[in-house]
Design goal:
The protein is an alpha/beta fold. It is 49% helix and 13% strand. The strands form two sheets. The protein has a six-stranded parallel beta sheet with strand order 7-6-5-8-9-10, with helices on both faces. A four-stranded parallel beta sheet has the order 1-2-3-4, sandwiched between helices. β3, α5 (113-125) and β4 (133-135) form a beta-alpha-beta unit. α1 (14-29) packs across α2, α8 (176-191) packs across α9 (205-213) and α8 (176-191) packs across α13. It starts with 13 loop residues before the first helix and ends with a helix.
Length: 338
């Protein structure tokens, strides 16, 4: 039976009040600010950003990380575990708040081109100019990765000649079927005698599924600090990511690239993540709907890694040209004209 789990309420909550007071104190200590930059999926940070922009009469930049109405996994979760009338009510309320943000912010930043295009279509329906909506691929700056280095505890893993495939993060609701297919695929490769190691960082579901079917080439790691998790990335040959939809760009993809490993996209072979890795020769996209082909492609990844025939991509495109520069240019234009 369905029961109601309320999504995060877009009201001026206690969290919002605390954030606003903290922001106002910081502004006072710095003798004012020139603009406000809020980062959120669709929550308190944007509510506070909107208020600060209004109070201080300054430009407002709003960055969406996986905006709710475009996050199909989250919307499906809400639909599955809420009463229909309640779900419809909150969907409309969320859309109203989204419209407010698009109307009032001077610049909107999304995490992928697909999200940008989708939000731009909504803006046109609402009669809002979509020129202020831009996209910027996310991920850590290479200088951050360099400063962190590789923790000594992972040096043994780094020096190992066995191909290493890693998955960073938890598996969210709605992905269970797809990750089960992934584990079955890896299990079959293990049975074929291929040598590799599948490293999971922070996931409880993947080791559980592996245990259920007897897949043993898995190294589960839990409760790593940010430094340890990012440092471990530099030891991997392939970083696994699972897009939630065709337009989804997962920020961990760029963390993998910054750490120096190639990206393995599991699913959505015609999606935006698959397009990026093909265009820039920085990974491979595997079609999880075709089991036979998925098995062959995964096997080729492992064999090519053993032969040291992994991809050699130019990392300049995602650190400067496609990640930060377009947004930085827009921000400079915005501030110089206010």
């Amino acid at each position: 039976s369905k029961f109601t789990i309320p999504p995060r309420k877009e009201v001026f909550s206690g969290i919002s009040k605390c954030m606003l007071l903290t922001a106002q104190k910081a502004i006072k200590n710095n003798n004012g600010i020139d603009a406000v930059y809020s980062i959120s999926s669709l929550g308190d940070a944007h509510k506070v950003g909107m208020l600060i922009a209004k109070i201080y009469r300054i430009p407002w930049i709003a960055e969406f990380q996986d905006p709710w109405l475009e996050n199909r996994t989250l919307m499906q979760w809400m639909k599955d575990f809420s009463l229909p009338t309640y779900f419809n009510y909150w969907q409309k309320k969320t859309e109203t708040f989204l419209k407010q943000i698009v109307q009032k912010a001077q610049l909107i930043v999304t995490e992928s081109k697909g999200h940008r295009d989708s939000l731009a279509n909504r803006a046109k329906i609402w009669g809002i100019n979509d020129d202020k909506i831009v996209y910027s691929y996310l991920g850590s700056d290479q200088r951050v990765i360099d400063r962190l280095g590789t923790p000594s505890v992972f040096e043994t893993i780094k020096d190992s000649s066995i191909p290493k495939i890693g998955f960073l993060g938890e598996v969210y609701y709605g992905y269970e079927k797809r990750v089960r297919q992934l584990i079955h695929c890896l299990y079959k490769l293990e049975k074929q005698g291929l040598q590799f190691c599948f490293i999971t960082i922070g996931s409880s579901l993947l080791p559980q599924l592996a245990s259920q079917i007897g897949f043993t080439k898995i190294l589960p790691l839990y409760r790593l600090s940010y430094r340890e998790a990012m440092g471990l990335i530099s030891t991997l040959d392939w970083g696994l990511t699972i897009p939630s939809s065709e337009i989804n760009i997962n920020s961990k993809m760029f963390d993998y690239l910054q750490g120096g490993c190639n990206v393995l996209v599991w699913g959505c072979p015609k999606g935006e993540m698959a397009t990026v890795v093909k265009k820039y020769n920085c990974g491979i996209a595997i079609d999880d709907s075709n089991e036979e082909k998925a098995l062959k492609d995964f096997k080729d990844c492992i064999i090519n890694t053993q032969r040291k025939e992994i991809l050699n991509y130019d990392d300049a495109w995602f650190t400067r040209k496609n990640c930060f520069k377009p947004v930085i240019d827009k921000i400079f234009d915005l501030l110089s004209n206010t």
